[in-house]
Input
Amino acid sequence: MKLRVFQHDQVESTNSLVLDQLEAGAAQHGDVHVAQTQTAGRGRLGRSWASLDGGLYLSVALAPGRGAPPAVWTAAGGLAVLDAVRDCGLRTATLDWPNDVEVGGAKLAGILVESRGFDPDRPRLALGIGLNVEQSEFPAELTAERAVTSLRLADCDSDRWEALAMLLGRLPARLNQALEDVDALSAEFLAGLQLENAEVAVDAGEPVNGRLVGLHLEHGLRLAQESGEERALAIEHVRAVTRRASS
Ligand code: BTN
Output
């Protein structure tokens, strides 16, 4: 697939820009909009995304012509970032459910897939990626919430343009995989989470504990419970999956 790349100095949110363009019929599948800075960047669960100097902020227009649910695109975006940062030497980087890339337990990147009314017959989505690249410190209000890092702090010495090139090198294969091989994408997503067969706590509206014995991005999670029964959970109901400390 061919990516077309558009650069902007300042936008409200690259996701909004892509969704506007998709709505207007002005975007092609694989258009990438990169902004130097965002004045109203969005994060997951209605949070804002601080678009500090030195970060990489971009959104990919997805108009694939056939349906793959949002969770599949979130995984494809997360894996593309994981591939790119591992290329940069961060071999211990992992995914954190559902949309973060972490290194040493600190957040390096976040993914946000949005649509304006998801139509499975005519999907139109924005796949947004925020990657911390050149920052050498973060505001206290961010770090109070959770540990945060950047490529620079994690010892990958790429600037934003090198990071963009690494990411653009890895995105097409993952976007194709989202359409052509969700089984393999699901398996790699689970491997990226490093939670295969781990004892996990799942927030699915209600707390559910068990051993994570399966994950498929279209069919859901399978947990082996202490009772010996297996429990299936639909992906869209799962808000968090965390490893449980062994007792
Ligand atoms: C999260 O971790 O909560 C997801 C953060 C996603 C941020 C990116 S930055 C580019 C794109 N535009 C936005 O407004 N958000 C995403």
In short: The chain has a mean pLDDT of 95. The chain has five helices and twelve strands. Helices lie at 14-23, 70-87, 140-145, 160-180, 182-193.
